[in-house]
Amino acid sequence: MDRQPDIIRFGNDGWHARFDDGFSEANVVRVVDALGLLWSDDAPGATIYVGYDRRHDSSVLAREAAGVLSSFGLRACVSDVACPTPAVAWSCAQDEAALGTLVITASERSCEYGGILVRAADGGPCPRSFLDEVEQTISSSPSKQRGLIEKRDLMGPYMAALTSFVDAGALAAARPRVVVDPMFGAGSGHLAALLTAVGCDVVEIHVEPHEDFDGIHPAPQDPWADACEQAVVAQGAALGVLLDGDGDRAAVVDEHGSILPARLLVPLVMGHLVEGHGATGRVVTTLTCSALVSRQAARLGCEMVSVPVGFPRIYREVLEGDVILGAEEYGGICVPAHLHERDGLLVALLAVELLATSGVPMSQLVSELESKIGSMRYTRRDVRLDPAVTQAFRNVLPGLNPPDVAGRVPVEVSHADGLRLQFEDDSWVLMRPSRAGALVRVYAEAPSECERDELLEGACDIVRQGV
């Protein structure tokens, strides 16, 4: 009996699957067939930029995908080296003849995963309606037709654009020692070369090829950031910067080897854009972002817009214009003056520039920030439930309005994305059922860990008892 073809479902950016559970050359071709058909119908002869990360067979699959796209009459330009997703997106956004991008990457997922990420003509996310149409167009078997492909240097122009965004002279004068950790991902070699070119003293780790990522996940957070944190201290570095697997997200480590949480990194970058670069306009964040982000926006005189979780919602605000920065709760940052998407290399470069131009250690910059906007303690917990119970909680959520949480009475209630309860001192909790699994994500933030944990436990109790 013939094997039934794998069912392929797209997330917000594209398709991801385990190598042992569906991510195969045949299925990659099936997906690219659908993309090629839709793109060629929309704009015959348009250019599509193709990139790839350093995972198993990514370069081979990228060339195969480019050949498939070319067979539909599209001009397929594939990167000549493994490169970060933002480089592919930026290249597409600069080319008026380009219609979209395709990147063979699974971003920050573990080495067991492969993926295809798809972006629109401006480098931003594709509409959900387009991804749904791709799903519906995927055939049961891969095509055999292949066309000619064109290799292209995507990194050179992109790196030049990044360099032009910052004060290279100030960086060269300060010559900070920086530990760069690309986590064996697509940023390997590139960010280190960029910082070296502008005068930094760079130590790079986790750069050699490792298809299994030497046991770490390419996610810039603890515990996977331990080696970078230790290297900063051992090398006497002023800063450490990490990139995730495809380079669209960065994290920063201070001179003491402490990683900066997103609740601090986002306000620091925002402040540097406004006070260091003279940027003006709005700040867009998800409802799950720290209150410190809104406090910093208020301090800087920036209008603050909060949207439900998901970068496509931030992107819709970016398209309206007048946006300085868009940020997600886990640290993905978009600077629309550069690209309508997240770019970890730019964030890393801005952090180094801030350090160089301020003339003080990163830990002092954090202390000065907290003296201006205060401090908060933030956390998230996933409450796992039976699928039926999770669905029942989704059903009752629109009418759920608890009078208090841990004895604290909310001053504002929002059902825009789950249930978010705001309290007088900027403390808040949010209960949000996952779209992808049988669990409810519970977020809490308060001025102290004790208050935060009380709110968290109270909200988790509401989730468990809410049905």
Number of domains: 3
**Fraction of residues in helices?**
25-40%
Instruction: Show unreliable segments.
Output: none
CATH class of the largest domain, anyone? Alpha Beta
CATH architectural designation of the largest domain: 3-Layer(aba) Sandwich
Round the Cα radius of gyration to an integer and report it. Answer: 22 Å
Biggest sheet architecture: 6 strands, mixed
Task: Give a count of the beta strands, DSSP E runs of length 2 or more.
Answer: 19
Shape: globular
Strand fraction band? 15-25%
The total count of helices amounts to 15
Structural category is: alpha/beta
Straight-line N-to-C gap: 45 Å
Mean pLDDT: 95
CATH topology of the largest domain: Alpha-D-Glucose-1,6-Bisphosphate, Chain A, domain 3
> Would you identify the CATH H-level superfamily of the largest domain?
Alpha-D-Glucose-1,6-Bisphosphate, subunit A, domain 3
Strand sequence of the main sheet, in spatial order?
1-5-4-2-3-6
What can you see in these coordinates?
With about 475 residues, this protein is an alpha/beta fold. It folds into three domains: about 15-155, Alpha-D-Glucose-1,6-Bisphosphate, subunit A, domain 3 (Alpha-D-Glucose-1,6-Bisphosphate, Chain A, domain 3); about 160-375, Alpha-D-Glucose-1,6-Bisphosphate, Chain A, domain 3 (3-Layer(aba) Sandwich), CATH 3.40.120.10; about 375-465, Alpha-D-phosphohexomutase, C-terminal domain (TATA-Binding Protein). Helices cover about 40% and strands about 20% of the residues. It contains 15 helices and 19 strands. The chain has helices spanning about 25-40, 60-70, 85-95, 130-135, 155-165, 170-175, 190-195, 225-235, 260-275, 290-300, 310-320, 345-360, 360-375, 385-395, 450-465, and strands at about 15-20, 45-50, 75-80, 100-105, 115-120, 150, 175-180, 200-205, 240-245, 250-255, 280-285, 305, 325, 335, 375-385, 410-415, 420, 430-435, 440-445. A six-stranded mixed β-sheet has the order 1-5-4-2-3-6, with helices on both faces. Strands 15-19-18-17-16 form a five-stranded antiparallel β-sheet, with helices on one face. Strand 13 (about 325) and strand 14 (about 335) form a beta hairpin. Helix 3 crosses helix 5 (about 155-165) and helix 6 (about 170-175) packs across helix 12. It comes from Thermophilibacter immobilis. Keywords: Isomerase, Magnesium, Metal-binding, Phosphoprotein. Belongs to the phosphohexose mutase family.
